[in-house]
Amino acid sequence: MPKVHVTASINGEPAEFLCDPDKSMLEVLRNTLGLTGTKEGCGTGDCGACSITVDGRLVCACLMLAVEAEGTEIGTIEGMAQGEALHPLQRKFLEMAALQCGICTPGVLIAARALLEKNPDPTETEVRFGLAGNLCRCTGYDKIVRAVLEAAAEMRETVA
Amino acid sequence: MNVITDKLQVEDNKWIGTRTVRPDGADKVTGRAAYAADNTMPGMIWGKVLRSPHAHARILSIDTSKAEALPGVKAVVTAKDIVEFPLDKSVMLGIQDMRWMCRNVMAREKALFHGHPVAAVAAINEEVAAAACALIEVQYEPLPHVIEIEDAIRPDAPILHDFLKFQDKPSNISATMTAKLGDVEAGFAQADVVIERTFRTRPVHQGYIEPQACTVSYAADGRATIWSSSQGQFMVRAMTSLLTGVPQSHIKAIPAEIGGGFGAKTIIYLEPLALILSKKSGRPVKMVMSRDEVMRATGPTSGSFSTVKIGAKKDGTIVAAQGTFYIQAGCLPGGPLRGPVGCAFAPYDIPHVLSVGYEVVSNRSKVAAYRAPGAPLGAYAAECVLDEIAEKLGMDRLEIRLKNSAKPGTKAAYGATFGKVTFEETIEAVQNHEHTKAPLDRNPRPGVKRGRGVASGFWYNAGGESSAQLNISEDGNVLVTTGHPDVGGSRASIANVTAELLGIDHGRVSVQIGDTASIGFSNLTGGSRVTFASAMVVTQSAEKVIGQLKERAAKIWKIDPEAVTWENGEARPAGPNAGQFPPLSLKELAAKANEMGGPIGAGVQLNTTGADPGFATHVVDVEVDVDLGIVRVLRYTAAQDVGRALHPSYVEGQIQGGVVQGIGWALSEEYLYDKQGRLDNAGFLDYRMPVCSDVPMIEPLMLEIPNPKHPQGVRGVGEAPIVPPLAAIANAVYDALGTRFYSLPMSPPKILEGLDAAG
Predict the structure, then answer these.
(1) Average pLDDT score over residue span B55-61
(2) pLDDT tens column, A148-159
(3) At residue B9, does pLDDT exceed 70?
(4) What's the CA gap between B719 and B35, in Å, rounded?
(5) Is 90 exceeded by the pLDDT of residue B1?
(6) pLDDT band, very low/low/confident/very high, at A105 (cuts 50, 70, 90)
(7) Using one digit for the tens of pLDDT, what is the confidence trace for B559-600?
(8) Of A46, A100, A140, which is closest to B698 when you measure between CB atoms?
């Protein structure tokens, strides 16, 4: 089957690529476009390590066909910081040691950003349910939840 | 909370004990950190593994000709390409026997589990490699299989290995271990109360989120480079060398960032296959496991079947303890017997102990280490029986532990005589904590019951070989290289120690993990040893560097090096008699280094000792929904002697992470097999690890009681936290329901069944 030409926006920049129609967005991000910050933990949508946003919506890149990216705005971990300025979530994760091995971190950060965009003032329970699709095996989640709550508080202050 | 019981120069420390940003942090929050599967090379091709469709089968023949003829296929490997280690001669690499490792990476005489590798292919892309695997014709003679311990030790059980004998008969019992103290029968005769119970646990997987992956490039000069994710690049080099016959000196193993290991990545699966595929094809070969392959074919830890008997006097003095632990090894020998056998009763001063372990092979993937290997199995049984003894005697559950706590000079059944013992402190920390004193609303709403449980745990900890190199750059900053893959923030601790010792700003220290060609031998990241051992070699390296800096200053000032001190990152004359000179900073000395004797730097290689054991005591509140059978953990507090927390956040992180793994083990994780011996839940949907909404905050109580045998007082912390949770949660569920569960996980069906049986 011939490859499909796909045009999309990735992290605010125009992107185009050719892909087989059966390739996942995750495979194209990692192997075609070299955006390896998005991780594969399971390939079945159960771990959230490949979380990206598509037109602002949180998606597991392993469950999305790359051809579905046509005309969309894709957000990955590589687009989260603005140059040297880390996103408040990224900064809080570092300050509060919310990562150990770090393999789940890109997906957790993308999911947390999507959560805060919908709900800027979440309770601990809302953070826990908002991140329930992102497995972390190192931290026991404690420091992740605290860092998200702190980042949310800081972001609310900045807006206000 | 941070309880500091000994003021080991704490007030003077500027960096040790502070929560600095880790050196590898920015890379890890921006997606730049390169894990094994992120590597790519020009000309790279892809490898895939063909796995056995049978749980147990003799391999009669393998025909790879059709696969090799498929366009795009570059190489095929089978067992005949792997170095064979004959069955009658043990060749050990650390704790791994190469006889079993060579049969684990590729099935040889027989396929021993569903998913056992039988061949591997390298091709221009993953699709062609997969198509080629399907073209390999393997003739199998299926054999009866056996999965569970009880079935594998029956007299009529299918025997996995004819060469394994137990009591002179072919058997699936592949090893035994005994720890003995006093005379256990005489001990029980003195007891006023004796309780004996049998417990079962299921195998659980380490559950690291990063599947195993590697890229291997074998060059025309016979030298190979390996990029892979492991808990030890030197282990990768040595084991790959042994399995491929390529000399160690011709292999460079580069440690990628590791996406979790928890013990499992102390052995290898893909690297030798990829090396041979690369050698045959002349191309770099990349191999990445799927999650299904990880679950099915890499080692989980052992399931177990244990009987524990404890005898005590009326006043709560334990007089005798006996444990019989059957643990799974998977399809080849090599299970963690010393975990349950040595650790189960180790926190206590018991005069008569008999602890016997049996390791049992069956048609499952070979087990791999998992955080305090085997210790949670023993502690689960021992700490539950201890709870029953306390109840029968009407004693407080923490008080009975305190009364029997090991003390300096106590002899443990596994052989050690304890020096400094810090177990009592962990019990007292829990006793005095607000959690323990808080009232518990036992019936908050209809159909919901709450309970509280406690348990303790022990882990040996370890020292061993470590290397460090500390170099001063021309601009006066510091680069530290160690040989240990950083699984949970060890670089952050090393940066704190280095900044402290040299008296410079933390931001001027970089820490990297060297490959096998750029740093001296360093043993595995495991056994809770890395921060202990690497802080020791980094300290000695820093002391040497400070010595060099003082010599340089002395040369510049033309005074005796003895007359120079190093303070706050500067060389100063030691006193008025040494002369009057303005201080020389690290930056100034570095700038003058080349004209004053050459580059400044030093390294130390050491077999470290003095890693005293770790103790932990936990308290947990649970809530059981009696209609749905769901157990929820409401509150968790974990006390542990951590020695000195070089970076408190990552010490807390070890405790919090270990506890939540224990919660999964206790409540939801288990390997389930179908009747054909195939793993039924080889994925994160059906193998249920705790997610964020399953657990509460985990409160770590770090007791900083410095280890006197370490320059900063460090004690290993990574493993002890997973030892108590199984029993603590089981004891809490009993406290809630009045029904005791003797098997894990306490999943909803099991809770409902137990409640039904209890009426």
Answers:
(1) 98
(2) 999 999 999 987
(3) no
(4) 24
(5) no
(6) very high
(7) 999 999 999 999 999 988 888 999 999 999 999 998 888 999
(8) A140
Residue B341 inside a domain? The answer is no
Q: Which of A77, A100, A135 faces B31 most closely, judged by CB atoms? A: A77
- From B505's Cα to the closest Cα of chain A, the distance in A is 17
Residue-level pLDDT at B11: 58
B5 — pLDDT class (breaks 50, 70, 90): very low
Is domain A88-159 in CATH 3.40.50.300, yes or no? Answer: no
Cβ-based contacts under 8 A for chains A and B: 185
DSSP code, position B523: -
B549: Cβ contacts below 8 Å, ≥ 6 apart = B472, B566, B571, B586, B589, B600
Q: What is the DSSP letter of B546?
A: H
> Could you give the CA distance from residue B593 to residue B552 in angstroms, rounded to a whole number?
8
Q: Report the C-alpha gap between B548 and B546 in whole angstroms.
A: 5
Contact flag A137-B206 (C-beta cutoff 8 Å): yes
Residue B495: which CATH number? Answer: 3.30.365.10
The three-point CA angle B565-B567-B571 to 5° equals 55
Same domain? B516 vs B655: no
Same domain (yes/no): B432, B531? no
Q: Are strands B614-625 and A57-60 parallel, antiparallel or unpaired?
A: unpaired
Enter the pTM of the model: 0.97
Indicate the residue type of A7. T
Interface test with A, best of B294, B487, B655, B691 (most A CBs within 10 A): B691
**Residue-number span of the structural domain to which B499 is assigned:** 10-33+463-608
pLDDT of B393 higher than 50: yes
Strand, coil or helix: B406: coil
Q: Angle CA(B490)–CA(B491)–CA(B494) in degrees, nearest 5?
A: 90
CA A127/CA A115 separation, integer angstroms: 8
ipTM of predicted assembly, 2 dp: 0.98
Q: How far is A46 from chain B (nearest CA, A)?
A: 6
Whether the predicted pLDDT of A100 surpasses 80: yes
Contact A137 B208 (CB under 8 A): yes
CATH: 3.10.20.30, 3.40.50.10090, 3.40.50.280, 3.40.190.10. Which one for A4-79?
Answer: 3.10.20.30
3-state secondary structure B697-714: CEEEEEEECCCCCCCCCC
